[in-house]
Design goal:
16 helices; four-stranded antiparallel β-sheet; seven-stranded mixed β-sheet; alpha/beta; PyrdxlP-dep_Trfase_small; Aspartate Aminotransferase, domain 1; Aspartate Aminotransferase, domain 2
Length: 416
C-alpha cells in the first residue's frame, strides 16, 4: 500500500462518505483522532437539540404529547432508529439510562446466581456493576466471577473464553471490541458457545456501535448495552441504549421504574408495576430529553450512507494507519491486523506512550492514552480522511526522531 501524502489525497477525493464530513465540527487546526472516546459535534445533532429546546419553549408540558417525536415515546422512537445499526427488531431496542445503569438493569434481571464469564481486559465499569450485582445476592464475586486471562496483554483468545464456560456458567458477558487494543470479538461464535452450555450471552457494544455492523437478533444474543457519545456522536453524557432479545419479553425487570411501565396504562398511576411488552420495560427513570435529542440528529448520517460503507471506510483508514505505523520502527501496532478482528481504532504502542500522547496533543492531534503503553488513534470514518491519517503519521515520526516527548512530564493523575 502506498502511504504517501499524494495517495492519501487521492483516496479522499474518491471517498463516498466525503459528503457528510462538512457537517461535523473539528476545532480549527486540530486533527481529531479520539472519536472512540467522544465523537465530535455535528450540525445535525445541534439542530435536533435546538429543536427540542424550542419545543420546550413553545409547548411547555405539552411537549410530552405534541413534540415531534413526542417526548413520552422518545426512548422507543430512538430505539426504532438504532435497531438497524445493531441488527435488531425495533421492539428489541430502546434508549435510556447510562451504560453502567443498563448493565445493572439487565444483570439484576437475568442473573440469579452461578458464574459469570468476563475477561481481564474489560472496561472496568463492567466488572464494577457485575460484582455489585453478585454482592446484592450475597455472593462472593471472587468465587463467581470467572475472569479469562489474556495471553499477550492485548487480546483475548475466543478459545479461552469458550473453555471457561461450564455447566455452572449463568452469563457470558464480553465487550464487542476491547477498549484498549481494538480487538473485535466474534459475537455469534461466543453466543453459540454460551447457549450450548445453557448460559445467556450479553455484550457491551460501547466501542463498536456506529463503527461495526451487528446482527444481534440473527445471532441470538440475549442482551446488550452501549453508549451513544462515541461513534454515534450524540454528545458528552448522551443517553445510552440497550437491546433485549424478544424471547425475553415479559421477564420482570430487576430494576423497575415508572418509565419502563406499559405506556398505555402508565398514567393510571397504579402502584403495581406493569412492564412494557418490549425492550422499553428496561427503562427506569424519565427520559432525559436534552441528553437524548442530539441522537435524533446524529443518526441522520448513518441513515443516509448506511453502516456497511461506514465500516468499509473505517477498515481502510485503520489499514492505512497500520501501514504507516509499520514504517516507524520505534512504534508497535497492538491491534489485530485481520479486518475481521479489528474495531474502529488502532493501538499504537510505545514505552513512552503517555508523553508521546501529550506531545501529539500539543501539536493539535487529539488522541488518548491507555495504560501501560498505548496511544489510541481513532480515524472515525464520518469526519476523518486519509490525508488526516497521513499527517498523524508524520507527527508520530517527528516526535520520536526529535525526542520531543522528553521535555514533557511523566504521567500524573486526571483524565487521559
Amino acid at each position: 500500500m502506498d502511504t504517501g501524502a499524494d495517495d492519501a489525497k487521492r483516496r479522499d477525493e474518491a471517498d463516498p462518505l466525503a459528503s457528510v464530513r462538512d457537517r461535523f465540527s473539528i476545532p480549527e487546526g486540530e486533527l481529531y483522532m479520539d472519536g472512540n472516546s467522544l465523537g465530535v459535534h455535528s450540525s445535525d445533532a445541534e439542530r435536533a437539540l435546538s429543536n427540542a429546546v424550542e419545543e420546550w419553549k413553545e409547548l411547555g408540558i405539552r411537549g410530552w404529547t405534541d413534540a415531534d417525536p413526542d417526548w413520552f415515546h422518545y426512548g422507543e422512537r430512538l430505539g426504532d432508529r438504532l435497531a438497524p445499526l445493531v441488527g435488531a427488531d425495533e421492539a428489541e431496542v430502546v434508549v435510556g439510562n447510562s451504560t453502567t445503569v443498563n448493565i445493572h438493569a439487565l444483570f439484576s434481571t437475568f442473573y440469579d446466581g452461578g458464574e459469570v464469564v468476563v475477561n481481564e481486559l474489560d472496561f472496568p465499569t463492567d466488572h464494577y456493576a457485575i460484582r455489585a450485582q453478585m454482592r446484592r445476592l450475597g455472593l462472593d464475586p471472587d468465587d463467581h466471577l470467572v475472569v479469562v486471562e489474556s495471553r499477550d496483554g492485548r487480546t483475548i483468545e475466543e478459545e479461552d473464553v469458550i473453555d471457561a464456560l461450564t455447566p455452572e456458567t449463568s452469563i457470558l458477558f464480553m465487550p464487542s471490541v476491547l477498549y484498549r487494543s481494538g480487538q473485535l470479538l466474534d459475537l455469534k461464535r461466543l453466543t453459540d458457545a454460551a447457549h450450548a452450555r445453557g448460559a445467556l450471552a450479553g455484550f457491551d457494544l460501547a466501542h463498536s456501535v456506529g463503527a461495526v455492523p451487528h446482527r444481534l437478533s440473527e445471532w441470538g444474543v440475549d442482551f446488550a448495552v452501549w453508549c451513544s457519545y462515541k461513534y454515534l456522536n450524540a454528545g458528552p453524557g448522551a443517553v445510552a441504549g440497550l437491546y433485549v432479545n424478544e424471547r425475553h419479553f415479559g421477564t420482570e425487570p430487576g430494576l423497575a421504574g415508572w418509565w419502563g411501565h406499559d405506556k398505555e396504562t402508565q398514567f393510571e398511576m397504579e402502584t403495581t408495576f406493569t412492564p412494557a411488552a418490549n425492550a422499553g420495560a428496561w427503562q427506569i427513570g424519565t427520559v432525559p430529553v436534552f441528553s437524548a435529542a442530539p441522537l435524533l440528529g446524529s443518526l441522520e448520517p448513518f441513515e443516509e450512507v448506511g453502516i456497511d460503507p461506514v465500516r468499509e471506510k473505517s477498515l481502510s483508514l485503520t489499514d492505512f494507519l497500520i501501514e504507516i505505523v509499520d514504517e516507524l520502527p520505534e512504534y508497535r501496532v497492538g491491534t489485530p491486523r485481520d479486518p475481521e478482528r479489528r474495531g474502529g481504532h488502532v493501538a499504537v504502542e510505545h514505552e513512552e506512550a503517555y508523553r508521546i500522547g501529550e506531545a501529539l496533543k500539543e501539536r493539535g492531534v487529539v488522541v488518548d492514552f491507555r495504560p501501560p503503553n498505548v496511544v489510541r488513534v481513532c480515524p472515525a470514518p464520518l469526519y476523518v480522511g486519509f490525508h488526516d491519517v497521513w499527517r498523524v503519521g508524520e507527527h508520530l515520526r517527528e516526535i520520536v526522531e526529535t525526542r520531543e516527548y522528553e521535555s514533557l512530564d511523566r504521567r500524573g493523575g486526571g483524565v487521559t
